Task: structure prediction
Amino acid sequence: RRRPNPETLTVTVTPPAYTGAKPWALNADARESGILNGSRIAIRSGVPAARNPLFRLDGATHAAPDFAFVLQADCAVTLDLTDARGMTHPAVWSCRFTRVNDRPPEVRFLNRDLNVRAGFGDSLTLSLEWQDDYGVTALELYTLHEQREVPLKRLTFREVRRTRADVCALPVTREMFAPN
Result:
């Protein structure tokens, strides 16, 4: 008596769009995996509907050969299959998905001169380096004025990269210090 085995089972993880990351295949033999919060997980059992594939997500059932969901919390997914004699075999495949949160980017100012004088109409040159676990597409510099965030500069990039180094000019204006 052999338990049915979903030999062609595949698990595809699609990270959230903001990461710019491509979908990737999780090893079907994995029994536990940390996945970025908000990722779409698609599981293809590779077995015909006649074998009555039944996915269970923390107790809720989904009867179909394929199953997909967006990861919002830690969860366990199992697959039950029916053999040729009509006997149901519970949990022939299972995996525990642990939600991993995206960390905020780390930004470093690399300017050597920390005490710079500049008047209105001048520009400050900023040397920046930053890194992020899933990549940076934009960086906004701001200051606080009377408990309000005041944007100073926004850098936007076409290409998503995990590390960047850049130099930018920050114009010194009256609005920086006394916004309306």
